[in-house]
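Open question from group meeting: does this chain pack into something compact, or does most of it stay loose? Before anyone orders reagents, we agreed to write out a predicted structure and look at it together. Recording both the input and the output here so the notebook holds the full record.
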Amino acid sequence: MVIAEDVRKTYSSSDGRSHLALAGVTAEIDRGNVLVIFGPSGSGKSTFLRTLNALETIDSGRIVVDGVSLTDPKADLNKLRAEVGMVFQLFNLFQHRTALDNVMLPQMVVRRRPRAEALRRSHELLEKVGIGDRASHYPSQLSGGQQQRVAIARALAMDPKVMLFDEPTSALDPETVKGILDLMKVLACEGMTMAVVTHEMGFAREIADRMLFMENGLIVEEGTPQQIFDAPRQERTKAFLEQIL
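C-alpha coordinates returned:
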Protein backbone atom coordinates (compact mmCIF):
# COMPACT_ATOMS: atom_id res chain seq x y z
CA MET A 1 0.00 0.00 0.00
CA VAL A 2 2.83 2.44 0.88
CA ILE A 3 6.38 2.42 -0.49
CA ALA A 4 9.04 4.89 0.66
CA GLU A 5 12.49 4.73 -0.93
CA ASP A 6 15.53 6.73 0.21
CA VAL A 7 13.40 9.62 1.49
CA ARG A 8 15.42 12.68 2.45
CA LYS A 9 14.24 15.93 4.02
CA THR A 10 16.25 18.96 5.16
CA TYR A 11 15.01 21.94 7.15
CA SER A 12 16.65 25.35 7.04
CA SER A 13 16.71 27.43 10.24
CA SER A 14 16.47 31.21 10.51
CA ASP A 15 20.23 31.47 11.10
CA GLY A 16 20.97 29.79 7.78
CA ARG A 17 21.88 26.40 9.17
CA SER A 18 20.36 23.24 7.79
CA HIS A 19 19.07 20.20 9.68
CA LEU A 20 18.81 16.80 8.04
CA ALA A 21 15.50 15.47 9.37
CA LEU A 22 15.35 12.37 7.15
CA ALA A 23 18.63 10.92 5.94
CA GLY A 24 17.46 8.27 3.52
CA VAL A 25 14.45 6.38 4.91
CA THR A 26 13.23 3.26 3.11
CA ALA A 27 10.15 1.40 4.35
CA GLU A 28 7.00 -0.33 3.16
CA ILE A 29 3.53 -0.87 4.62
CA ASP A 30 1.56 -3.81 3.28
CA ARG A 31 -2.16 -3.49 2.74
CA GLY A 32 -4.04 -4.17 5.98
CA ASN A 33 -0.89 -4.04 8.12
CA VAL A 34 0.06 -1.81 11.05
CA LEU A 35 3.49 -0.16 11.11
CA VAL A 36 4.61 1.33 14.44
CA ILE A 37 7.38 3.94 14.35
CA PHE A 38 9.20 4.80 17.58
CA GLY A 39 12.36 6.50 18.74
CA PRO A 40 13.67 9.47 20.73
CA SER A 41 12.42 13.02 20.30
CA GLY A 42 13.76 14.64 17.14
CA SER A 43 14.50 11.35 15.42
CA GLY A 44 12.39 12.18 12.35
CA LYS A 45 9.38 9.98 13.18
CA SER A 46 6.68 12.62 12.73
CA THR A 47 8.42 14.18 9.75
CA PHE A 48 8.47 10.81 8.00
CA LEU A 49 4.81 10.23 8.81
CA ARG A 50 3.86 13.62 7.39
CA THR A 51 5.68 12.89 4.14
CA LEU A 52 3.35 9.95 3.53
CA ASN A 53 0.46 12.28 2.70
CA ALA A 54 2.62 15.13 1.38
CA LEU A 55 2.09 17.42 4.37
CA GLU A 56 5.88 17.60 4.18
CA THR A 57 7.55 17.76 0.79
CA ILE A 58 10.71 15.71 0.36
CA ASP A 59 14.05 16.76 -1.09
CA SER A 60 14.69 13.46 -2.82
CA GLY A 61 13.57 9.86 -2.87
CA ARG A 62 10.24 8.32 -3.78
CA ILE A 63 6.91 7.77 -2.01
CA VAL A 64 4.11 5.76 -3.58
CA VAL A 65 0.68 5.33 -1.98
CA ASP A 66 -1.61 2.73 -3.54
CA GLY A 67 0.18 3.07 -6.86
CA VAL A 68 0.22 6.89 -6.91
CA SER A 69 3.60 8.63 -6.73
CA LEU A 70 3.64 11.68 -4.45
CA THR A 71 6.63 13.07 -6.32
CA ASP A 72 4.92 12.94 -9.70
CA PRO A 73 4.30 16.57 -10.76
CA LYS A 74 0.96 15.45 -12.19
CA ALA A 75 -0.21 13.91 -8.91
CA ASP A 76 -3.34 15.49 -7.39
CA LEU A 77 -2.11 15.87 -3.80
CA ASN A 78 -5.48 17.09 -2.51
CA LYS A 79 -7.12 13.96 -3.88
CA LEU A 80 -4.35 11.83 -2.40
CA ARG A 81 -4.73 13.40 1.04
CA ALA A 82 -8.39 12.46 0.95
CA GLU A 83 -7.25 8.83 0.69
CA VAL A 84 -4.79 9.09 3.59
CA GLY A 85 -6.38 9.95 6.94
CA MET A 86 -4.30 11.82 9.52
CA VAL A 87 -4.84 11.98 13.28
CA PHE A 88 -2.69 14.54 15.07
CA GLN A 89 -1.38 14.78 18.60
CA LEU A 90 -3.42 17.92 19.36
CA PHE A 91 -6.67 16.96 17.58
CA ASN A 92 -6.78 19.95 15.13
CA LEU A 93 -10.56 20.31 15.33
CA PHE A 94 -12.55 23.34 14.19
CA GLN A 95 -13.21 25.01 17.54
CA HIS A 96 -16.26 26.95 16.33
CA ARG A 97 -17.96 23.82 14.98
CA THR A 98 -19.73 21.01 16.80
CA ALA A 99 -18.40 17.46 16.85
CA LEU A 100 -20.97 16.56 14.20
CA ASP A 101 -19.96 19.46 11.96
CA ASN A 102 -16.28 18.56 12.32
CA VAL A 103 -17.03 15.12 10.89
CA MET A 104 -19.55 16.31 8.28
CA LEU A 105 -17.77 19.24 6.66
CA PRO A 106 -14.75 17.45 5.14
CA GLN A 107 -17.07 14.91 3.52
CA MET A 108 -19.16 17.64 1.94
CA VAL A 109 -16.25 19.82 0.83
CA VAL A 110 -13.71 17.19 -0.28
CA ARG A 111 -15.83 14.15 -1.11
CA ARG A 112 -18.75 16.28 -2.39
CA ARG A 113 -21.24 14.15 -0.50
CA PRO A 114 -24.82 15.34 -0.20
CA ARG A 115 -25.60 16.76 3.23
CA ALA A 116 -28.03 13.96 4.11
CA GLU A 117 -25.46 11.27 3.32
CA ALA A 118 -22.71 13.10 5.21
CA LEU A 119 -25.04 13.55 8.19
CA ARG A 120 -25.91 9.85 8.28
CA ARG A 121 -22.27 8.79 7.96
CA SER A 122 -21.17 11.24 10.67
CA HIS A 123 -23.69 9.95 13.19
CA GLU A 124 -22.62 6.37 12.41
CA LEU A 125 -18.96 7.17 13.00
CA LEU A 126 -19.52 9.17 16.18
CA GLU A 127 -21.38 6.13 17.51
CA LYS A 128 -18.56 3.87 16.34
CA VAL A 129 -15.93 5.86 18.25
CA GLY A 130 -18.12 5.95 21.35
CA ILE A 131 -19.34 9.55 21.49
CA GLY A 132 -22.66 9.45 19.67
CA ASP A 133 -24.21 11.40 22.54
CA ARG A 134 -21.72 14.27 22.09
CA ALA A 135 -22.61 15.18 18.50
CA SER A 136 -23.89 18.67 19.39
CA HIS A 137 -20.96 19.51 21.69
CA TYR A 138 -18.19 21.92 20.74
CA PRO A 139 -14.52 20.91 21.24
CA SER A 140 -14.27 23.14 24.31
CA GLN A 141 -17.05 21.09 25.89
CA LEU A 142 -15.24 17.80 25.28
CA SER A 143 -12.41 16.10 27.11
CA GLY A 144 -9.11 15.48 25.35
CA GLY A 145 -10.01 11.86 24.74
CA GLN A 146 -13.40 12.80 23.33
CA GLN A 147 -11.80 15.35 21.01
CA GLN A 148 -9.39 12.70 19.75
CA ARG A 149 -12.33 10.40 19.07
CA VAL A 150 -13.93 13.15 16.99
CA ALA A 151 -10.64 13.54 15.10
CA ILE A 152 -10.56 9.80 14.40
CA ALA A 153 -14.19 9.84 13.24
CA ARG A 154 -13.41 12.79 10.96
CA ALA A 155 -10.51 10.91 9.36
CA LEU A 156 -12.58 7.73 8.95
CA ALA A 157 -15.41 9.68 7.34
CA MET A 158 -13.25 10.18 4.28
CA ASP A 159 -13.06 6.38 3.79
CA PRO A 160 -9.26 6.49 3.70
CA LYS A 161 -7.08 3.72 2.32
CA VAL A 162 -4.43 4.46 4.97
CA MET A 163 -4.61 6.00 8.44
CA LEU A 164 -1.65 7.90 9.92
CA PHE A 165 -1.51 8.49 13.68
CA ASP A 166 1.05 10.99 15.00
CA GLU A 167 1.42 10.29 18.74
CA PRO A 168 -2.38 10.27 19.15
CA THR A 169 -2.30 9.62 22.91
CA SER A 170 0.64 11.79 24.04
CA ALA A 171 -1.59 14.76 25.01
CA LEU A 172 -4.06 12.61 26.93
CA ASP A 173 -4.27 11.65 30.59
CA PRO A 174 -3.38 8.01 31.43
CA GLU A 175 -7.00 7.01 32.05
CA THR A 176 -8.01 8.20 28.59
CA VAL A 177 -5.13 6.59 26.69
CA LYS A 178 -6.50 3.05 26.92
CA GLY A 179 -9.80 3.98 25.29
CA ILE A 180 -8.08 5.54 22.28
CA LEU A 181 -5.69 2.61 21.91
CA ASP A 182 -8.60 0.18 22.12
CA LEU A 183 -10.35 2.10 19.34
CA MET A 184 -7.21 1.91 17.20
CA LYS A 185 -7.01 -1.84 17.85
CA VAL A 186 -10.56 -2.20 16.52
CA LEU A 187 -9.56 -0.37 13.32
CA ALA A 188 -6.52 -2.62 12.94
CA CYS A 189 -8.64 -5.74 13.41
CA GLU A 190 -11.02 -4.44 10.74
CA GLY A 191 -8.12 -4.41 8.28
CA MET A 192 -7.25 -0.71 8.18
CA THR A 193 -3.73 -0.01 6.88
CA MET A 194 -2.08 2.10 9.57
CA ALA A 195 1.19 3.87 10.38
CA VAL A 196 1.46 4.93 14.01
CA VAL A 197 4.08 7.06 15.73
CA THR A 198 3.85 6.16 19.41
CA HIS A 199 5.71 5.28 22.60
CA GLU A 200 2.90 2.98 23.74
CA MET A 201 4.94 -0.19 23.57
CA GLY A 202 2.24 -2.48 24.95
CA PHE A 203 0.01 -1.41 22.07
CA ALA A 204 2.87 -1.91 19.61
CA ARG A 205 3.63 -5.42 20.84
CA GLU A 206 -0.02 -6.41 20.57
CA ILE A 207 -1.08 -4.86 17.29
CA ALA A 208 1.94 -4.01 15.09
CA ASP A 209 2.92 -6.16 12.14
CA ARG A 210 6.23 -4.31 11.75
CA MET A 211 8.15 -1.79 13.84
CA LEU A 212 10.71 0.86 12.92
CA PHE A 213 13.13 2.35 15.43
CA MET A 214 14.40 5.72 14.21
CA GLU A 215 17.17 8.05 15.36
CA ASN A 216 18.88 10.99 13.67
CA GLY A 217 16.67 10.70 10.61
CA LEU A 218 17.59 7.08 9.98
CA ILE A 219 16.01 3.69 10.53
CA VAL A 220 18.26 2.05 13.11
CA GLU A 221 16.32 -1.20 13.22
CA GLU A 222 13.25 -2.77 11.65
CA GLY A 223 11.48 -5.99 12.53
CA THR A 224 8.47 -7.74 13.98
CA PRO A 225 7.41 -6.82 17.53
CA GLN A 226 8.72 -10.16 18.77
CA GLN A 227 12.15 -9.55 17.28
CA ILE A 228 12.33 -5.91 18.37
CA PHE A 229 11.30 -6.59 21.96
CA ASP A 230 12.83 -10.00 22.56
CA ALA A 231 15.99 -9.92 20.48
CA PRO A 232 16.92 -6.42 19.26
CA ARG A 233 19.92 -6.58 16.95
CA GLN A 234 21.20 -3.07 17.59
CA GLU A 235 22.57 -1.93 20.94
CA ARG A 236 20.93 1.48 20.48
CA THR A 237 17.52 -0.16 20.12
CA LYS A 238 18.13 -2.24 23.23
CA ALA A 239 19.25 0.80 25.25
CA PHE A 240 16.19 2.85 24.19
CA LEU A 241 13.76 0.07 25.05
CA GLU A 242 15.38 -0.38 28.46
CA GLN A 243 14.69 3.30 29.16
CA ILE A 244 11.03 3.34 28.20
CA LEU A 245 9.81 -0.12 29.23
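Observations to bring back to the group:
The longest strand covers residues 18-29.
The mean pLDDT is 93.
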